[in-house]
Amino acid sequence: MKFMLIRRADASTENGAMPSQEMLAAMAAYNQRMTEAGVFLSGDGLHPTSDGCLIRFENGEPTIIPGPLLPASERIAGYSVLEAPSLQAAIEWAQQWPIQDADGNVTLELRRYFSLEDFEPGAGLEQHRTQARVPDAMNVHVAFPGTCREAMQFYADVTGGQLECLLTYAETPAAEHSPPELHDRIIHASLNLRGRRLMGADMAADCYTPPQGVEVQLEYQDIEQASRTFAQLAEGGKITMPFEATFWSPGFGMATDRFGIHWMVNVASDNCPLATEGDEP
């Protein structure tokens, strides 16, 4: 089940007070625990309502009501999206909200998302089911000739992602059908990057083929972080295109790392013609 955990606003958040470093660290640790448990999907804080507005419709006509919006207690300061097996499980995570937030004096609201199964069958629902053909996630799987463990640990260090799994052949029923030299190799690895996964496995020598024509693309908002990541990935490997400004991005580079995996590192740009070409409003 999918839930939204809403942090209600208060006078402090509506006045634009920024969280302390202690609070930021506590919230990061809380989110990390939920990520490791497979609960945390996403989350963000919101600027005060003075930076926003209400759009109210009457007989189909919109009226813009600029902020600030009162009362503060009925507004939202931030939210987290959780995946939990039940309401009770989601409540248990909500009860662990960092006490550093407003000295433990906050109001949280927990709401379950609708799923398609909640609605009566009909033509309108079928339109949504058609949209549901789009997968919930698209991940990347790469093969290694015996270096999967080292590579995935390296990628976790470089990206700060959560290394969820390093499963060996010996730890699965596949062990009895695999040559002994594969038993300590990795049959499944998974690196969680904000809910998207880079997965990998070691292949037997006669089955391994070096990747060709495919790159793993990483996108950043921060050009300095993108540049650091590119440099780390390229170290000991081969640079195909140096990290520099292009006509579509303030920073882009291509490299093959020392494990033979091809990478693109890109800085997002609001003025990217490639991202908007052919898009319909």
Describe this entry's structure for a reader.
With 281 residues, the protein is of the alpha+beta class. The protein has three domains: 2-52 and 68-115, Alpha-Beta Plaits (2-Layer Sandwich), CATH 3.30.70.1060; 136-209, Roll (2,3-Dihydroxybiphenyl 1,2-Dioxygenase, domain 1), CATH 3.10.180; 213-281, Roll (2,3-Dihydroxybiphenyl 1,2-Dioxygenase, domain 1). It contains seven helices and 14 strands. The protein has helices spanning 11-14, 21-36, 87-94, 123-131, 148-159, 223-234, 273-276, and strands at 2-8, 40-45, 53-58, 61-66, 76-83, 108-112, 140-144, 162-168, 186-193, 196-202, 216-220, 238-244, 252-256, 262-267. It has a four-stranded antiparallel β-sheet with strand order 2-5-1-6, with helices on one face. A hairpin with a 2-residue loop joins strand 9 (186-193) and strand 10. The longest helix has 16 residues, at 21-36. It is globular and about 65 Å long.
